[in-house]
Amino acid sequence: MSISANGGRRGPSPAALLLALALALCCVVVVSRATPRHAARYEQHCGLCHDDPSGGGKRSLYAAQYLLPVEMVSFPPDTASLARLDPRLGENLSVGCDLRTMHHHASGGDPRGFLQMEGNLYLAFDPDPRVALYVARGISGSYEVFGLARLLPAQGYLKAGRFVPPYGWRLADHTAFVREHGGFAPPAHSDVGLEAGVFPGPFSVQVAAVNGARGRLRDSDGDLAVSGLLLGRFRLAGLALAAGGSLRLDPKDAAGERRSGGGPCAGLHRGRWTWVGEMDWLRRERAGAVRTEWMLSHEFSARLERGVDALVTYDFHDPDLDMRTGARERWGAGAEWRPSPFVQLRMMIHRLRASTDGVPGTGDDWLSEAQVHFLY
Questions:
Q1: What CA–CA distance (Å, rounded) separates 56 from 204?
Q2: How many Cα atoms are found within 13 Å in the side-chain-facing hemisphere of 141?
Q3: CA 7 to CA 129: how far, in whole Å?
Q4: Which of 321, 340, 314 is nearest to 282 (CA)?
Q5: Does residue 45 surpass a pLDDT of 60?
Q6: Distance separating alpha carbons of residues 376 and 374, to the nearest angstrom
Q7: Confidence of residue 34 (pLDDT cuts 50, 70, 90)
Q8: Residue 152 near residue 198 (C-beta atoms within 8 A)
Q9: Domains (ranges, CATH) in the chain?
Q10: Separation CA 261–CA 305 (nearest Å)
């Protein structure tokens, strides 16, 4: 929704409408997650490249020893160096890590400076090929710890412990509006409960029941929160299509607020070009007062050469559809370069437009982001 110049009720901007229409059309054609961009590009679900079937966190042995060093970097290691790439400490124990340091600058007087965005250590213990014990700890206080049993049909699994519930694209950029405003930004993004998933044919189905007390050690009430994700991947007229949707229901969180929501997510890939997008609605109810939010996040990328991607992003958030002001939209452009399997560089410029206190444009700002990512 656009920011009204006359203080009247906002209507969807042409850009937001086009992006929403493209996403809706994809979901009509078909009903996948590496970062979502790479999942769409390589036409694989996240379990191929991550120990966690939901994506994110420690990379799998295949990703660490082959996909990253051979397919996704500008300067692939030689044969001898490849032979030394082994995250295993023994037959049953393996490690991984992610370190992201970022510099933010804002033109509106808030320089922000350096930020240690991520510092995660991962441990995975595999007592047998079908069972894994997983621990991830981050410097922000975020963590995941769960057991995983691959015992269900259709390559399915059961998970128990603290984890990020399945919902939408698990974007690495925690400032993407669908993650930040949807309640999935760390450290309060994990919860305790059970999850099950199956992968019949081109589809993946994941459902979780958790406490509904994200970021807390114990439940604050007897109500459970439920979330689910249905995704599929197909090929049509030379296009790789990935699309589906998410739902969630939280009868009451620790603050006494009821939340329910959902929305579609999709991706397209052909040749050098990849797009992933997500649209979510979130209904909040507390003490009889109801507020409905709408948010979008989109990323367009072009693979310029091996290890180099050009990026364009768009985010939108309306915190209350019944209010005339308060919406924000953010355009971004930049690039990522992965010179080696262990280093990634990212540079982005963002334009933030917002309406504050009924005066359109008072929240406008230019933001720059420079990021260094060390990974293993």
A1: 16
A2: 9
A3: 60
A4: 321
A5: yes
A6: 7
A7: very low
A8: yes
A9: 14-375 (2.40.160.10)
A10: 39
Residue 150, CA distances (Å) to 74, 203, 288, 291 in order = 35, 17, 43, 40
Q: DSSP states of 13-27 as a string?
A: -HHHHHHHHHHHHHH
C-alpha dist (Å) from residue 75 to 65, 78, 212, 342: 15, 9, 45, 11
Task: Say how far apart CA 215 and CA 223 lie, in whole Å.
Answer: 16
Whole-prediction pTM? 0.83
| Cα 267 to Cα 271: distance, rounded to the nearest angstrom | 14
Contact, 103 vs 369, CB < 8 A?
Answer: yes
For the chain, report the end-to-end CA distance as a whole number of angstroms: 40
Instruction: Please state, rounded to an integer, the average pLDDT across all residues of the chain.
Output: 84
Q: Is residue 157 classed exposed, middle or buried when 0-12, 13-18 and 19+ CB atoms within 10 A define those classes?
A: buried
Main-chain dihedrals φ then ψ at residue 61, nearest 5 degrees = -60, -40
Cα–Cα distance between 313 and 49 in angstroms, integer?
24
